[in-house]
Design a protein that fits this description.
Largest sheet: 5 strands, antiparallel
Structural class: alpha+beta
Number of domains: 2
Oligomer: single chain
Helix content: 40-55%
Order of helices and strands: HEEEHEEEHHEEEEHHHH
CATH architecture of the largest domain: Alpha-Beta Complex
Distance between the termini: 49 Å
Strand order of the largest sheet: 1-2-3-5-4
Number of helices: 8
């Protein structure tokens, strides 16, 4: 049997499907059909039951650095959002023994994987209709999440990711390793280092402000939001972490940089302020965290073993550098 890491994405997906079928045996579902949705970051499967219901099964990839505490916190917040708000969110389905997170394994897949089943969320990706109206709705949605988070406490025993440093995810910082010197030559490295220092300065100011951290979605971009007849539903809470609202906003805005950014940013802010005051404390604070998302993704792609990501790395790193330069020049930050 070939090593899992040497397989194509399609080959990996076939093996993950066996693992998914093993996981589904733990749930009280009359499974009729299991189909792969994506095998990009995680293994996501659509599950159809004999009584006509639809669910999503997610197989968490250990390479992404998410452990049982992270996924358990995700399940807890989703359950609280479903209980406490009128937001349309994916609801976790308990296994037969009541667990919201289970482990499953399969031959040919290295180590066991964390699995969770969610209710099906109707609609299309928000990315298919990036109108000002919908981006304003996205801002309002984020504000609603922040409002709930301000009064929500995750279980104290869980050790969560924390956006109290420029690289909040657990993968090692490899941007400046000798292995990637050709991708990050000295001039580009100087840009990345300046951006990292800029983000660190904003974190220092937030910590000094005394504002309490709260749980954040951490990845609320247009491919993680479903749009059904104008009602937006946030999905994929896997990257949730403790942090400040400006960081969450910046993560979302990063993915609007290639669109009509000024217009969409204004629409997002208008929607957000329908529910909450705009949380930016000083000019450029959000921009510094937009930059943080950029260099964080650059570091991620260099860590990710997915062969597809590796082939895209040169173009991706170059694009991030251009974005960092644009943000820094706008704010008078020297590279």
């Amino acid at each position: 049997m070939k090593p899992y890491a040497s397989l194509t994405e399609h080959g990996q997906a076939r093996r993950l499907r066996r693992l998914a079928l093993n996981a589904l045996q733990i749930y009280p579902l009359n499974v009729a059909r299991v189909r792969l949705i994506t095998n990009d970051m995680n293994g996501i499967f659509r599950v159809d039951t004999g009584d006509g219901c639809k669910f999503v099964l997610r197989v968490t990839m250990p390479e992404c650095g998410h452990n049982l505490d992270h996924v358990a916190a995700e399940m807890d917040w989703l359950a609280a959002l479903a209980r406490d708000t009128s937001l349309s969110v994916p609801c976790p389905l308990p296994a037969r023994d009541g667990r919201l997170v289970v482990e499953a394994s399969a031959d040919g897949v290295p180590q066991s994987r964390l699995c969770a089943v969610f209710s099906w969320v109707r609609g299309k990706d928000l990315a298919e209709d990036m109108s000002e109206v919908n981006i304003a709705r996205l801002g309002e949605l984020m504000a609603q999440l922040h409002l709930h988070a301000s009064g929500y406490q995750p279980p104290k025993q869980l050790n969560l990711l924390c956006f109290d440093r420029p690289f909040p995810f657990p993968e090692p910082v490899v941007l400046f390793d000798d292995l990637f010197a050709a991708l990050v030559p000295p001039q580009r490295r100087a840009v990345f280092e300046s951006a990292i220092a800029w983000a660190q300065g904003s974190i220092d100011r937030l910590q000094a402000s005394g504002e309490a951290m709260r749980i954040l979605h951490g990845d609320l971009h247009q491919w993680n939001v479903r749009n059904f007849r104008g009602v937006l539903s946030p999905i994929d809470f896997e990257d949730l972490m403790l942090g400040w609202p400006v960081q969450d906003i910046a993560t979302t805005l990063y993915y609007l940089l290639d669109e009509n950014f000024a217009m969409l940013r204004a629409a997002f802010q208008e929607g957000y302020t329908r529910r909450c005051p705009w949380p930016e404390r000083h000019p450029g604070e959000i921009d510094s965290f937009i930059a943080a998302r950029g260099f964080g993704l650059a570091n991620f792609i260099l860590n990710d073993p997915n062969p597809g990501w590796r082939t895209q790395a040169p173009e991706f790193i170059e694009r991030v550098e251009k974005r960092l330069r644009m943000l820094m020049e706008k704010n008078g930050i020297a590279a």
